[in-house]
Amino acid sequence: MQVIASIFDMQSTAEDLRSKDRLIGLVPTMGALHEGHLSLIRLAKERADTVIVSIFVNPTQFGANEDFASYHRDLPRDVELCEKAGADLVFAPTAEEIYPKGYSTYVTEESISKTLCGISRPSHFRGVTTIVAKLFNIIRPDLAVFGQKDAQQGAVIKKMVNDLHFCVDIVVAPTVREPDGLAMSSRNRNLTATQRTEALAIFQALHKAKEMVDGGVYNADRLIAEATHHMGERRRVRVIYTSIVDRGTMEAVREVLPGKAMMAIAAWVDEVRLIDNILL
Ligand code: PAF
Fold it and tell me: Each residue of 263-280: pLDDT tens digit?
């Protein structure tokens, strides 16, 4: 498996692939790969000739008191997993090359990124759009695959692609869950067994909301109250938000229009911040 660290090498390799008419699929990641990421790689492989996985723990998307320093890093393990999942190449640049001294240019989406996680993590999406725009410029992929678990991220990136005329198809792949329903996340590895049990309340709350909608309850306040109450029964779970939003704009809705809305939750399980969502 080829691992490229330099931007110049990545640009020329991608250029070479394009000259051979290879369709390039990109899976942007921060490493600490799990089955959810591997499903994105497999999906990219179905749709593209060459799959590039970027592995970069992007400092600009972490707030000052967040887990950037402790974020799990294991490049050899991640490269091996990428290869097994069918990726062709890993791009793992250094922070010094991506953000050299004096770096001062950022990409900001100013609407979708303001709600949900944008409230408690005000600079997060600016970091995401900046790094993703850079990856799109360096690699110029034909398509890029993101996970539905980060639904707001997917919506922000789609908006950026549309607003800035990037020539890339954004593919959003379904959330991969543990057998009991917990959404796969790189941060799950930070949960103790007790926290892991309590974290399940997030999925259960979403699942309950979906059942209620399927049973004809469309009032957002009622659904949110039920979900919040369920999580409130867990001592270690502190809800950051439970919202019902339009899937495209991420703006809160009062009534669920089935097929158009989703419930999104962010919660602390002690010191581990988790997010999840369900389409309603
Ligand atoms: O979803 C992630 O892992 C990150 O936000 C991304 C898209 C790789 C940008 O750093």
Answer: 999 999 999 999 999 999
